[in-house]
Amino acid sequence: MADRKDIHNSDTPVLCQSCEARHNGMCGVLEPTELLALSKITRVVRHEAGAELAAEAQPVDSYANVMRGVVKLTKTLEDGRQQIVGLQFAPDFLGRLYTKESAVTAEAASDVDLCRVPRAALERLMSENPALEHRLMQQTLRELDEARDWMVTLGRKTASEKVASFLYLIATHLDPSHEGEAIRHFDLPLTRSDIADFLGLTLETVSRQLSRLRADKVIAITGNRHVDVMDMARLKSRCG
Amino acid sequence: MADRKDIHNSDTPVLCQSCEARHNGMCGVLEPTELLALSKITRVVRHEAGAELAAEAQPVDSYANVMRGVVKLTKTLEDGRQQIVGLQFAPDFLGRLYTKESAVTAEAASDVDLCRVPRAALERLMSENPALEHRLMQQTLRELDEARDWMVTLGRKTASEKVASFLYLIATHLDPSHEGEAIRHFDLPLTRSDIADFLGLTLETVSRQLSRLRADKVIAITGNRHVDVMDMARLKSRCG
DNA sequence: CGTCGAATTGACTTGGTTCAATCGACGTGG
DNA sequence: CCACGTCGATTGAACCAAGTCAATTCGACG
């Protein structure tokens, strides 16, 4: 992890000092006094992989920031067909502002640490502090951009382009610090079945395409989950 | 069009008095004095079907409100494959806030009237008036919800479910006033090829599925563009 | 070493694409 | 007023990418 200038101001709550969201997430816009007030009502919660954090059409009484791990947002048709409609990484904000009912199911894809904020408290803070709403607006717009990018993948790419696009997305999101390097490696935060739900494919097709990428020496796979991308440029060229 | 209470305040600019956006769009949150100031720098522009309003990766120097017609937002892969990633109806706001470059191409799907606002002017107004940003936040969140709904359609529905979902979407968006009625009729704002780009299908498949819906008496089609939905409930049941 | 869930691989089927022919509405010019 | 060209839509037939069903294999863990 790269060095980062931090004032380690005595006003900054201990819990927040090492937090991703403190720097790049929504808390970055808060004044020390606001941060202190906020930190008194937040709670860091650990969830293990598979835990359901919010259910479709169910009320949610808190928002959260992802501090560690990956959260998947899914939607399900009556007959059980499922689609992942978003992935949230640290330090993303989690929750649908201004609506009690979640339109999606949120589930921990890996072990996850969340920093939870009561719904009413955040909304009050937001109404007092336009900069906070502005920051969340920025994230919402980014999520909309990402959703639209993904619609192209879902609607117009072939299975092999979809799998390549997924690997490329994970490689660039999981560890942004190695930006520009040709070789990357990471552990997949999703099972084959989850990847299939993300890509609108079956798990068999995902598996076959991963095998093909491995046979073509674009990636190496060790122990099911660990992926080495041999050449990011070559991976990108397969994204369609 | 249903009756609507309006104060017809003399402070309300003439141009705005009959405008959709004045009531349900972003202008609804403005004070009469702000609206007056804004109306001095807006320009109503008419575009005919097919006109390109903004291009992918090209700078845009104004935002706009859709006053009449339908605008399609598209993304294109290098090899020409295209996907529609959003449709904007009156009184939607048009434009990507805070980023000069549009990430999508905006094109008039039908003849369109836009109310254009210079970029800098709107951003200044927004920074002075948090209620305005709040309102645009609401629309952005709604668009994100819609994009995620559509991801399920693109990723997990069959061709016939996709076409039914599209007709259902258009029927409910084009004329919200007939909400709850079993029979609806409207003119499709898109060609078969556009519909295919929206659904991630080919135009032939769209045509075949429309023919099937007609054969099954779910819809009637007259003159290529006009559609009568015989029973909204039956249409909905085919949406998967 | 055995068990269990996840992943891979193979054989077969199929929904949707591709390529191609035809239709129909509309506008233009002879 | 009708013949012709254009453009969008429809329909048919052949093909193929991805899905389905089923059998192993792999890897983690007790």
From TrEMBL, chains A, B:
Which InterPro entries does the record cross-reference, listed alphabetically? cNMP-bd_dom, cNMP-bd_dom_sf, Env_Response_Regulators, HTH_CRP, RmlC-like_jellyroll, Tscrpt_reg_HTH_Crp-type_CS, WH-like_DNA-bd_sf, WH_DNA-bd_sf
Q: Name one GO cellular component term.
A: cytosol
Keyword Cell wall biogenesis/degradation among UniProt keywords? no
What molecular function terms (GO) are annotated for this protein? DNA binding; DNA-binding transcription factor activity
Q: Which SMART domains match?
A: cNMP (SM00100), HTH_CRP (SM00419)
Give the record's keywords alphabetically: DNA-binding, Transcription, Transcription regulation
State the PROSITE patterns in the record.
CNMP_BINDING_3, HTH_CRP_1, HTH_CRP_2
Name of the protein in its database record: Transcriptional regulator
Organism equals Tianweitania populi
